Description:
By secondary structure, the chain is of the alpha/beta class. It is 44% helix and 11% strand. It starts with 6 loop residues before the first helix and ends in a 5-residue tail after the last helix.
Amino acid sequence: xxxxxxxxxxxxxxxxxxxxxLGPRSARRAVLHLIRKRAxxxxxxxxxxxxxxxxARECLNCGNVGTSDICALCEDETRANGELCVVEDVxxxxxxxxxxxxxxxxxVLGGTLSALDAIGPEDLRIPRLVDRVSTEGVNExxxxxxxxxDGQTTAHYIADQLSGRVKxxxxxxxxxxxxxxxxxxxxxxSAALRARKEI
Length: 199
């Protein structure tokens, strides 16, 4: 009996293994599940992926991902309130939107400054950010960057670029809701102590 040709399945497993959070074993399990649920999951997933591959694009204004050159958030006039929230990537924008509390517009940098990886301001959307502050009536820039060394370096660089042009704020850092001091790292406790407020 001739050996079965599983090259298409193996290729799919290899591609799935490249996704964040999936290794070879997880990818193999996911592909087997998809094959077993071909009509219910695999075929609709393949169709949706094909459509997204054709239509997905980055917003020319803010860097969000959508299906048109200017995303729905940038098109929404009710969000033109003068507040611009700067995030590292689209996942951060989506997290902010899930919270449902920010009603302004966004600017996605596409990463952070990193001397180690040779990522400078021109490799990110920092020049576009400076242009937007000048042309869109922005009165506050909220730096919602991750509390990493690269994130904070990027925040300081942006603050230097926009100093004197606009109000600059950053997200509060410290003890999360439901957090217990015993489980927090020293940096989080230190940030929470510095950001303490009167009650």
